[in-house]
Specification:
The complex is a heterodimer. Chain A is mostly helical. Chain A contains 15 helices and 2 strands. In chain B, strand 3 and strand 4 form a beta hairpin.
């Protein structure tokens, strides 16, 4: 291996690692706030990328039907309970967000010829379709079980993962897609050729991390999420709705997932089931951080990206094996540093 | 029609199956048996042990690939050639490899919180799948062909019908072994895991070991299933051992009913039949091919977890009237040997200058107490004074930041709770930690865990019945001693809270302790019950037991305790006989507030 190859692999690793870091942050966030291990995160990476790809191919993305379908379900359930508790204004709000919004987005896509739109608008609409799925899934699948054990929530996550992978196949077919790059530019940096999209990925990830930091440190909602993560009961006593916190954390996580997919879609071919492995690599990063520390999780995720790119050079067939075996030493270390038996909830 | 009749009908149907059913259904039943075996392991792991694994398909793969490789490869190294000479020896090799892998995975994850094992098994499931697909000597993604047929006593099982009997014999055998295990001392230790590790450890259960036992057993069942699969199919490739199939196995266990052995059979049948039907029907409806059944499985799974978290088995079991099987009598047995009692007046427990800090908060500040044999020492104080922390320090649930705790002269701070229990300290919990679905008798028998020594191998074969009878007899004796004989076979969860506290005392007594730690035993008791409890504690004191009592009920404490220590803000503010303490100005101020 000469320096040029090493630099190339390093670049690849950092680009992938940046995406894994975003996903790792989202996983830690969701786990801390809701105790849900969010396995389906990866499916939203694929949904984001493939929804954008559908626009560019002039097709209506299947995710739109999922949005409308889940919107109808949430609207029905929540209107019914609002009606029972005699809160007519709440019905209006529920119907507005879960019924009117998906239909409006749908109408814009159906009659607006998104193929002709500028890329930024396409991205915006891809996010508009995919991101609301997060809170809807929280409402339908997790909220009724919010007090269940971590184990039950994990099994629900895996069930949702299965259902979404199947739906992904139904919506987008078995063929993969690539999208138009955000930028065609490329630079010569010493011996290294850097393409514009890679810069976009790294810059967007870094920017998003900063935005998240500001959100958690400076805004009331961010502080509410942190409070919920530290102590659910205490947060509730302070008037923070844990349901709101759950939906918000899912909104952020799915938003991060979809955006990650949109960022990488121009540099890798995304298939309906690609997201799962990408999401799991974010997981390895999150586990390195003990599912609790944001900076360690992000650093772990970048390490995963580097390990992956270098092992794809030396032992490409065993790339996945090497990456997933990496958690073993991490777990050994955690196991050895844990002295007393931990009590599960 | 009682349960036995239903079981007999079911077995008769199974025995006649191949003779009366078309080939297609026999094949389906073969697969149900193979999947049921894996799901059974998950019942043990998830429903009983409260752990889970998504990597069971990978263990199936280890069983299948080990036998396929060993029995088809020519010129094996001498050490392996023996294992390759017969599929049965290859099975032994597969079991060894599986046990080793499961042990390793368990060793790195089981001491951590419960979600690390499933996450670890996801990583393991994916890694192994790619490993199978990329190792040249395992045939890559095309796999290994030409796996020999099994033969049993010289009879070749080349036919689906013959294989059917082998598969179902394996499954029913595993169900029998699992049932035996659960109805034993080791089984109670495993079932106690769901009551929380702190309770189980305080009763002397090595919870890491119990978790390891169920994880390894579940992996071994999966391995046997894989071995059978390889010799039924006569070839192996990586596809059936991927993570997605691992998830489907978990679905079988959860949908069927993860808390019951027969839930595995119900779940495996339902998922297999549903999959068969959906794979025909869905592509037709949707107009495109693909494994869309996973959408239905995913949704079905969420529905089951929302509406019937215990799965379908309990709903099916309701259709059959209850019958024999529930225990209604305890066999007479020779009493267990007892530990030497400490002479009255010897110092049992001695805590010296114990400090416990949580971050910046000092929960216990230089606390010192002693408890002697044959005395009742009460620890009282307002809420938040640090009494429970003190209790946890003494019983080994947490470690002190500094200071020493001694039991019979030996330092015990820093020891695990189960090692402290082993030395003769029994405890109850402020928030009752019984297993509500288990009988009072079985709950109390958990307390006697350390007084038996027969292990898992004896338990699965029920070769430990003599010891088991002695343990149950001891539990029954303690239940009678605390006055709950009439509730012995009732579900612990059906008792009033006050009685559940008494069951906890019986459970602690079943460990034959010299020192008893009671955390608010009188809370929730009625007046007469309190009197009976006081009477019991006096009797125990008379027999030389030392008792450390945390209690809020002042009448109860002052009428009973020999000495009282009062805590406030983590410190001891008074100690002495009840009359002294009652008149102590500091104590009065702590309880009633001072006049500024």
């Amino acid at each position: 291996m000469d320096l040029q190859i090493a630099l190339l692999l390093g670049q690849d690793g950092i680009v992938n690692g940046a995406v894994y870091a975003l996903l790792a942050l989202a996983l830690v966030l969701v786990f801390a706030v809701t105790r849900v291990i969010f396995i389906p995160q990866g499916e939203f990476v694929a949904f984001g990328a493939l929804t954008l790809a559908s626009f560019q191919a002039g097709k209506t993305p299947g995710t739109l039907w999922l949005l409308i379908g889940m919107g109808v379900a949430v609207a029905a359930i929540d209107s019914f309970s609002a009606w029972q508790s005699r809160r007519p204004r709440r019905i209006l709000q529920v119907v507005g967000w879960n019924l009117a919004y998906p239909l409006l987005v749908g109408a814009a896509i159906r009659y607006g010829a998104p193929q002709e739109w500028p890329l930024a608008l396409q991205v915006l609409f891809a996010m508009a379709v995919v991101v609301p799925l997060g809170p809807m899934i929280y409402r339908l699948a997790y909220q009724p079980l919010a007090e269940a054990s971590v184990l039950v929530l994990l099994i629900v996550s895996v069930a949702i993962h299965m259902a979404l992978v199947g739906l992904g196949l139904l919506f987008f077919g078995a063929e993969g897609s690539r999208t138009t790059p955000f930028s065609d530019a490329s630079f010569q940096l010493g011996d290294l050729m850097v393409n514009g999209q890679s810069l976009w990925v790294v810059a967007a990830s870094a920017a998003l991390i900063v935005v998240l930091y500001v959100f958690f440190e400076r805004t009331l909602y961010g502080k509410a999420l942190r409070a919920t993560a530290i102590n659910r009961t205490g947060a509730r006593l302070m008037g923070i709705s844990t349901t709101m916190a759950g939906k918000l954390s899912f909104l952020l996580a799915v938003g991060i997932g979809a955006l990650s997919g949109i960022l990488i879609a121009p540099i890798t071919t995304v298939y309906y089931d690609t997201g799962f492995l990408i999401g799991l690599k974010g997981f390895v990063g999150a586990i390195v951080g003990g599912m609790a520390s944001y900076p360690v999780a992000a650093a772990g995720a970048v390490l995963v990206g580097l390990l992956e790119s270098f092992s794809s050079f030396w032992a490409s067939a065993f790339k996945e094996v090497i990456v997933f075996t990496m958690i073993i030493p991490v777990l050994v270390w955690r196991s050895l540093t844990t002295h007393h038996v931990e009590e599960d909830e | 029609m009682g349960p036995r009749v239903v079981l007999a009908v079911f077995l008769a149907f199974l025995a006649l199956g191949p003779a009366i059913l078309p080939e297609f259904y026999v094949t389906l039943l073969n697969y149900i048996g193979l999947y049921g075996l894996v799901a059974l392991g998950l019942v043990l792991l998830t429903g009983v042990g409260g752990l889970t694994s998504f990597g069971q398909a990978a263990f199936v793969g280890v069983g299948a690939y080990t036998t396929a490789y060993l029995t088809t490869t020519q010129d094996l190294p001498a050490a392996l050639a023996l294992f390759g000479s017969s599929p049965w020896l290859a099975l032994a090799a597969g079991l060894l490899v599986t046990a080793a892998v499961a042990w390793l995975l368990g060793a790195v994850t089981l001491r951590l919180s419960g979600h690390y094992l499933p996450l670890g098994t996801i990583a393991w499931g994916i890694s192994l799948y790619f490993l199978f697909g990329n190792l040249g000597f395992l045939g890559g993604y095309t796999g290994i062909t030409g796996v020999p047929a099994l033969s049993l006593f010289g009879f070749e099982l080349a036919d689906t019908h013959h294989f059917y009997y082998l598969i179902w014999a394996a499954l029913l055998g595993a169900i029998w072994l699992t049932g035996n295990l659960l109805d034993s001392r080791e089984g109670r230790a495993i079932r106690a895991l769901k009551g929380g590790t702190i309770m189980a450890e305080s009763m002397g259960v090595d919870t890491a070991r119990s978790k390891m036992v169920v994880f390894v057993i579940a992996a071994l069942y999966a391995c046997v299933s894989g071995w059978l699969y390889a010799h039924l199919q006569r070839f192996v490739n990586p596809t059936p051992f991927g993570l997605q199939i691992g998830i489907e196995y978990l679905f079988m266990a959860v949908i069927g009913g993860a808390a019951h052995v027969w839930g595995a059979v119900v779940g495996a049948s339902l998922v297999t039949l549903l999959k068969q039907w959906l794979q025909d029907w869905l592509p037709e409806v949707l107009g495109t091919t693909g494994n869309f059944e996973i959408i239905v499985f995913g949704l079905l799974m969420i529905f089951v977890l929302h509406r019937a978290r215990d799965g379908l088995w309990p709903l099916l079991a309701k259709l059959v009237p209850e019958g024999a099987g529930e225990r209604t009598a305890v066999p007479a047995a020779e009493p267990l040997s007892r530990r030497a009692p400490a002479p009255a007046g010897t110092v049992l427990l001695e805590a010296v200058d114990v400090v416990k800090e949580f971050g910046g908060l000092v929960a216990n500040d230089r606390m010192s107490i002693t408890v002697k044999a044959g005395e009742i020492m009460a620890l009282i104080g307002p809420n938040g004074a640090g009494k429970s922390t003190m209790f946890n320090l003494v019983s080994g649930v947490t470690e002190p930041t500094s200071g020493e705790v001694r039991y019979c002269g030996e330092r015990i701070d820093g020891l695990e709770a189960r090692r402290i229990a082993q030395r003769g300290m029994g405890r109850t919990f402020q928030h009752v930690r019984l297993l509500p679905a288990m009988s009072v008798l079985e709950n109390v028998a958990i307390g006697a865990h350390l007084r038996g020594r027969r292990g898992v191998a004896a338990a699965v074969l029920h070769a430990e019945r003599a010891e088991e009878a002695r343990l149950l007899a001891e539990a029954a004796r303690q239940i009678e001693r605390v006055g709950l004989a009439e509730h012995m076979f009732a579900q612990a969860g059906s008792l009033a809270l006050g009685k559940q506290r008494i069951v906890e005392i019986a459970r602690a007594l079943a460990g034959d302790p010299n020192l008893l730690l009671l955390d608010e035993p009188a809370a929730g008791l009625r007046y007469l019950e309190k009197q009976a409890l006081a009477e019991l504690l006096r009797k125990l004191r008379g027999e030389g037991m030392g008792i450390l009592l945390v209690e809020h009920d002042m009448d109860f404490v002052m009428g009973l305790a020999d000495r009282v220590a009062v805590m406030e803000f983590g410190q001891k503010i008074a100690e002495g006989v009840p009359e002294e303490v009652q008149n102590d100005p500091g104590v009065i101020e702590a309880y009633l507030g001072g006049v500024d």
